[in-house]
């Protein structure tokens, strides 16, 4: 079967993962579909092919796909509600060629400007390929539609791994310290896949005497990188806190599972920690941050979770009446914000009244640096 590809699968590393063939590039040739164009979908980063009397949609033909490869490609595309249809393209010799291609339901998306394929590859190619590795591993364990629902969470996890890889220093030996090469994974298993993942590993690690440890079994909660920001108004000398229901506190048996927190949220793919902090401040509390002071970038509990927190104090205006109720309804968020004068916040901080460690970190940093922030305001 000949398949015409015009979108994100033109990124060869992604196509190799999805098809399962690391040498699939040997079977491709360029082709076009006249009177069609490829444009970015309004509100998204991926493209669609749509009718355009003056356009030419460029793509590739993949020849000789077997049933197993088609099944893998179908699984990946059906996750996003795409289905194969048949039409005719012109191959690289300008000859008509019957092909099949993945397209969304008619009217599902609205085209925007012409799609910048190279720009997409530069910004999202690597993280999408990393996401596809996890996505395709579910082909025998969940329906395509379920995988599609979990895909944004898979991509957030991939973005966290990508961010770590791009920010890490030397692996080992160069600095005399141990690194990833000093860990041997014997077997890895996904025990739960959903909004978060739980992975179990049998592994061995290098001991400080140079020997390798006996095999050990560990289970880890696979979270994502998060941006956390404590808004501070240096002119009025006050902070903003938010309050919301937390399932973890509820399951621990806490009599009050509504916790007082800084503003927080996961860092989306293609987004930096500071961008996420500014976006979350607007979504959760309706405030605009004029500056961000980096407090810390650290693991909250690396023995049991991959989560990594980027903590900030955000400079902003907090006039009377700026508190309220916010959050994204699409994520079932119900978040109430409140303003505290510095004297009241500092008193509660030192009395141990707050129950969230990131808030304590940000609060104590602000206590040490507050005098330096106020004169410049």
Describe this structure in words.
With 377 residues, this protein is an alpha+beta fold. It has 3 domains: 140 residues, Gamma-glutamyl cyclotransferase-like (Hypothetical upf0131 protein ytfp, Roll); 65 residues, no CATH class; 152 residues, Nucleoside Triphosphate Pyrophosphohydrolase. It is 30% helix and 35% strand. The protein contains 8 helices and 17 strands. The strands form 3 sheets. Strands 10, 11, 12, 13, 14, 15, 16 and 17 form an 8-stranded mixed sheet that branches. A hairpin with a 3-residue loop joins strand 7 and strand 8. Helix 1 packs parallel to helix 3 and helix 3 packs across helix 4. The longest helix has 24 residues. The model has no long low-confidence stretch (mean pLDDT 93).
Termini Cα gap = 66 Å
Beta-strand percent range: 25-35%
CATH topology of the largest domain: Nucleoside Triphosphate Pyrophosphohydrolase
Whole-number mean pLDDT: 93
Q: Identify the CATH homologous superfamily of the largest domain.
A: Nucleoside Triphosphate Pyrophosphohydrolase
Helix count? Answer: 8
The succession of helices and strands, N to C, reads EHEEHEEEHHEEEEEHEEHEEEEHH
Question: What is the β-strand count?
Answer: 17
Largest sheet report: 8 strands, mixed
